Amino acid sequence: MAEPTSTQERYPLRAAVRTAFQVVVALATLLPYILAELPVSGTWVAQTVAVAMGITRVMAMPQVNEFLNRFAPLLAAEPKKE
Questions:
Q1: Rounded to whole angstroms, how far apart are CA atoms 53 and 28?
Q2: Is residue 44 part of a domain?
Q3: Which domain does 49 fall in, by range?
Q4: CA pair distance 11, 65, nearest whole angstrom
Q5: How far apart are CA 26 and CA 51, in angstroms?
Q6: pLDDT higher than threshold 70 for residue 41
Q7: Mean pLDDT of the chain
Q8: pLDDT tens, 6-33?
Q9: Is 31 within the bounds of a domain?
C-alpha cells in the first residue's frame, strides 16, 4: 500500500478539526442576514463579519500553521516536528 502524501491523508483528525473551524468561521458570515431580522445595531455585525473573513484568509498562510503548531496544535495542518 502506498504511503499517504497529503496532510489530510496522514492526519485526518487534524484535517477534520481545521475544516470544522473554518466552517464555523464561514457560517459567521451569515450573521448579517440573521441579525437583519432582529432589532440590533449593525456595528458589531460588521466587525464580526470582517474578523471572520480575516480568519478564513489567514488560516491558509504557512506562518499561521507554524503558530498553530506551537500554540493550538489541534488546529495545525500537521503535528509539530520534534
A1: 9
A2: yes
A3: 10-75
A4: 14
A5: 11
A6: no
A7: 78
A8: 877 888 888 888 888 888 888 877 877 7
A9: yes
What pTM value is reported for the model? 0.45
5 inside domain: no
Overall domain count for the chain:
1
CB-based contacts of 14-22 (< 8 A; 24+ apart in sequence): 14/74, 14/75, 14/76, 14/77, 14/78, 14/79, 15/77, 17/74, 17/75, 18/59, 18/75, 18/76, 18/77, 21/59, 21/75, 22/56, 22/59
Identify whether 61 is part of a domain.
Answer: yes
Question: In the predicted model, is pLDDT for residue 1 greater than 80?
Answer: no
For 8, the grid coordinates are: 489530510
Q: Rounded CA gap, 19 and 38, in Å?
A: 29
Q: What pLDDT is recorded for position 40?
A: 63
